[in-house]
């Protein structure tokens, strides 16, 4: 029986496989293919419920790589099942709870989504989602808008509400004992680098990396660099990929 941990990729809010660009193919070519790109964020109303669904859907030890909301779900899963999560890669994410201002902005956005103005809101969000060098890249922006469009307004509303309701996980982070890579785009305006830095500082032995030329959508903006960082993380894990002692 093969007890090797399975690599699971977790997309962010209202995102699907397209968020990971060609990263799965790059990892597979290097001999470390992902076992799945899971979409547990669809069909569940809270981050803890998404984490439970993730753990139920994939048996055995896991290597979790999550971007944005996917990283939040990965942290919840690792805290709930520390003996099963052998390593974490957290990309463009935050352990903080939403501020009152962010809750207000998300609430207003949800009202616009419900009123059929999703495209308007998403286009206004592009400068915050991408590095300034990429915000005018029509192909990249169109791929982003198409991906969120596939999720649809109901999923956007439900998942924004889940993110708004999330707890502050920072006090819990020192309990994590798995090997952790924390990655962020250098120009991430949605989950700024200081959010990633505080995660890395709180998790013993965690590695922090800032990705040049990337904003919040770092997997789409710099897939080659992200794939190499993930591959380095995977290759540095011990054979059993167990928790650090």
Describe the model.
The chain is of the alpha/beta class. The chain has helices at residues 23-29, 47-57, 69-80, 100-114, 118-129, 138-164, 193-202, 218-221, 223-236, and strands at 6-10, 36-37, 62-67, 85-91, 179-185, 207-211. Helix 4 crosses helix 6. The two termini are 26 Å apart. The model has no long low-confidence stretch (mean pLDDT 94).
> What is the string of SSEs from the N terminus onward?
EHEHEHEHHHEHEHH
The global form is: globular
Radius of gyration: 17 Å
Tell me the β content.
5-15%
Mean pLDDT: 94
Per DSSP E runs of 2 or more residues, the count of β-strands stands at 6
N-to-C span: 26 Å
Low-confidence segments, given as residue ranges, are none
Biggest sheet details? 6 strands, parallel
Based on secondary structure, the structural category is alpha/beta
Q: What's the short version?
A:
The protein has 245 residues and is α/β, with parallel strands linked by helices. It has helices at residues 23-29, 47-57, 69-80, 100-114, 118-129, 138-164, 193-202, 218-221, 223-236; strands at residues 6-10, 36-37, 62-67, 85-91, 179-185, 207-211.
